[in-house]
Structures are given as C-alpha cells and as structure tokens.
Write a structure and sequence with these properties.
alpha+beta, Glutaredoxin, Glutathione S-transferase Yfyf (Class Pi), Chain A, domain 2, 2 domains, 9 helices, detoxification, EC 2.5.1.18
Length: 229
C-alpha cells in the first residue's frame, strides 16, 4: 500500500473515531492518523465533510468517507486483509445493525448524560436508562454470541466495534458515580466480553486511559457550563 493512501481525521477521545481505528487495525491497514484539535475544525475536515463537519472522516485515495458506522462497513468491504467485520449471514447482519443503531440512538445519549448529572436524585434518574440499556445489551450478548467471547462469536465483529468503542466512557461514568455499571453480578456476559474486547490487539492501543479521558470529559463539561449558549 502506498504511503498516504489511507488517512483518518479524528481525535483520540472520540468513541466514533475509535470505531474506524479498530476496524483498520482488524484489517491490518496502515493509515495516517490526522489529529483534529478540540474546538478547531481543520480546512481538510470542512472540505472532506461539508455536511456534518464532524469526525471521523476516512480518506482513501483522497476520497472522503464519513460517519463512523459507514466507515466501518466501507473498510470491511474494501479490505480482505483481515477477518470479516460484518456477519456473513443476512439475519445476523441485520441483528447487528439493529443493535448498533440502538447503541447510537438510545444507549449512548443516556450514558453521555450520566457524568453531568448533579445531585442524588438527578444521578438516580440518569442512571436508570443506562442500566436498562445494559440489561438489554446483556440479553443481546447472550442471544447472539453463540457461546463465544464476542457479540460476533469467536471474533470481533460489527456490534463489538459499535458498542465496544463506548467502554472508555462507561469506565469514566463508573469512576464519577462510584457505580460499577458492567460487573459480574448484573451483567456477567458483558463483564467477560469487555475484558476480552479491551485486551484484543486491535483495540488495546486505541482504548483511552480512564484518567486521561475523565480529565478530557470534565474539561468539556466545564466549557459547556461556561458557554453563554
């Protein structure tokens, strides 16, 4: 592969960027990571994603591909240098896409609100949809992992990437609230899965350090609280 053929615009704390990085690692694709600065959108980003103006953006032969799950699917289709990410069975593929949509549309918005909850009542109210979501994902893991360590069975697949990228934020939420959201008592399947996922060679180097990510999220919360809007 020619140098500079694949570039990824992103930022290390972003779980969405992490999806693309994990997918590229699974396929053993060499790429250049172009770090975007907090609060600053580069000209290349604005040119490459003029609709949403957001990361991640994958540049392949200078052609931009936007939106994290679209990027993961593109990587899976273009490179055969690693295991398939999307399940080969049409039903399994549909199920994985369904749960990936659930994670993005329902679970993560609830999780994102948790570190910002102030006071006991607000914390309890914010905690409920997160625990409810984890219970649903625990059932999904039990029903679709086929006895393997991952949602995809014996290897990391689409839903593992889609959901696993949020483990860093989950760890931050656990640290902030003092509540073990994923544990061997309430979510034993997810507890084992999370350990296996984070230890995978495609994941371990891109999963952010909890203390570093906590500091970053606190900085974002402080910036939002000081914003006039």
């Amino acid at each position: 592969m020619a140098k500079g053929e694949v570039k990824l615009l992103g930022s290390w704390p972003s779980p969405y960027v992490m999806r693309a990085r994990i997918a590229l690692n699974l396929k053993s694709v060499e790429y250049e990571f172009l770090e975007e600065k907090l609060g600053v959108k580069s000209e290349l980003l604005l040119k490459s994603n003029p609709v949403h103006k957001k990361i991640p953006v994958l540049l392949h032969h200078s052609k931009p591909i936007c939106e994290s799950l679209v990027i993961v699917q593109y990587i899976d289709e273009v490179w055969s240098s690693g295991p398939a990410i999307l399940p080969s069975d049409p039903y399994d593929r549909a199920v994985a896409r369904f749960w990936a949509s659930y994670v993005d549309e329902k679970f993560f918005p609830a999780l994102r609100a948790l570190p910002m909850a102030q006071g006991k009542e607000a914390m309890e109210a914010a905690m409920h949809p997160v625990k409810e979501g984890l219970a649903l994902l625990e059932d999904a893991y039990a029903n679709h992992s086929k006895g393997g360590p991952f949602f995809g069975g014996g290897q990391i697949s689409y839903l593992d990437v889609a959901f696993g990228c949020f483990l860093g934020v989950i760890r931050v939420s656990e640290k902030v609230t003092g509540v073990a959201l994923i544990n061997e008592h309430t979510t034993p399947g997810l507890a084992g899965w999370a350990e296996e996922f984070c230890a995978h060679p495609a994941v371990e180097d891109v999963m952010p350090d909890t203390d570093k990510l906590t500091e970053f999220i606190n900085r974002i919360i402080k910036m939002k609280s000081q914003s006039p809007n």
